[in-house]
């Protein structure tokens, strides 16, 4: 979230909410994470769910 907020400001609350929701969508669906073998979190979660679908948590 720091990347989004670094020195920025928003003209109003609605604009802030919109930008934050876009950032969260990008962060979870597109941004690659080194801790996840350079995959996106959504892809990693889907992979876990299909790989371990028979393991109760």
UniProtKB/TrEMBL annotation:
Domain of life: Bacteria
Keyword set, alphabetical order: Plasmid
Domain Integrase catalytic per the UniProt entry, residue ranges: 3-41
Pfam families found in the cross-reference section: rve_3 (PF13683)
Protein name in the entry: Integrase core domain-containing protein
Organism: Hymenobacter canadensis
Lineage of the species this protein comes from: Bacteria, Pseudomonadati, Bacteroidota, Cytophagia, Cytophagales
